[in-house]
User: Fold this.
Amino acid sequence: MLGSNIPVVKLGIIAVSRDCFPIALSNQRRKNIVQAYRGEDLYECPVTVENELDMLKAVEDVKAAGCNALVVFLGNFGPETPETLIAEKFEGPCMFVAAAEGDGDLIDGRGDAYCGMLNCSYNLGMRHLKGYIPEYPVGTAQDVADMIADFVPIARAVIGVQNLKLITFGPRPQDFFACNAPIKGLYELGVEIEENSELDLLVSYKAHAGDPRIPAICADMAKEMGEGKYYADLNERMAQFELTLLDWAEQHKGARKYVAFADKCWPAFPSQFGFEPCYVNSRLVSRGIPVACEVDIYGALSEYIGMCVSGDTVTLLDINNSVPKSMFDEKIQGRYNAYTLTDTFMGFHCGNTPACKMCADRAVKYQLIQHRVLEPAGSEPDISRGTLEGDIAPSDITFYRLQCDSQGVLRAYIAQGEVLDVPTGSFGGIGVFAIPEMGRFYRHVLIQKGYPHHGAVAFSHVGKYLFEVFKFLGVGDIAYNQPKNLPYPTENPFC
Assistant:
């Protein structure tokens, strides 16, 4: 369960009508949609908008009903000015859809909303107003009801971003320039940011020593992991840290409703806190609170958007290492014939993936790389303990990222694929990923466009929703893994 850090969408529908068309047509078609909609409650605004005064009444009505997202329905041609002003006066995301003909005669029962949608979209652009318009925004009552259902995850993400505070601790690690991105893009999206030092976090952590809630958190950790899958002597410290983050989130939300974290997790963290934060990070993200590694602010934002869209937890991974040809030949070829070797790679991070998305043998272990660096050679792991390690469970996935580049330009990528049921034989939280045409995508999107090594992972195919969210947020460059018959602009045609 993602908890209260993800918005709950309350939808309303307002019908509009141009005064030279029958208002009864819009009214009846609106009622038909409400009856056809199978999702959670869809509030039906009783005011049908023909003019600007109607528009003001309708907007006040849906606000009073608690709606935070809105469907503007052209039951007939629609009034261009009032219908587009709804998007200006209503504070949440608005979808614009239109009625198809077929539920009446073509004389008194023709609404011409097909034409009206053109004028509506033109006026939205003239007024620099954002509105979500589906791929084909004209349909029957059932068609529109289905479009509304698709709008819900998009609206949830937009509402979340509009009310999000991103909290950071520390600068990005030395030589991790890829995690050093301008905050300008956050403000353009409407995201607030609070920047703190690692020392601020340490002070708060120490203040939580002996917190009476610690034993309950320890018991929950033990229950989640199971006997023999965690370090009993480490649980109290990790529980103390979990409470530190949870309390910081509540105390620092300020005017915002939702939070995400981006923390500097190495090299100083384990030496000062006495453990690696990865398992705690995984526990928070399983409850809808992303904690991105290495102060990756856009990684945290990407995670949050993915949770809103999918309604499920996510993870943040390095696009890490190639799959050995011997492993491909022995374990993938013949089982997954849709993929070539270059379609596969391993996604890895130290141990931040939620336990519920990992194979049954996952356990709290130690960070091998940090052990090499921070602890004496040949010693038993101590401060490098605290990672959640094991293979990521097989699943459909969407690999994606929203990024602000060094020039302050927002861009994004989306690629759908899967985690294969193939043992990795490696360390960390890791899985064998397969994405169609990954090799070309790796070269002509990830490398060509200068994306960092972190990608967010949603555990389902949600590309169509992410694409619409990024469009709504104003992202102009949205890349994807193009099929072989569609070359990238930078792709060598002679290869």
The chain has a mean pLDDT of 96. The two ends are 48 Å apart (CA to CA). The chain has 16 helices and 18 strands.
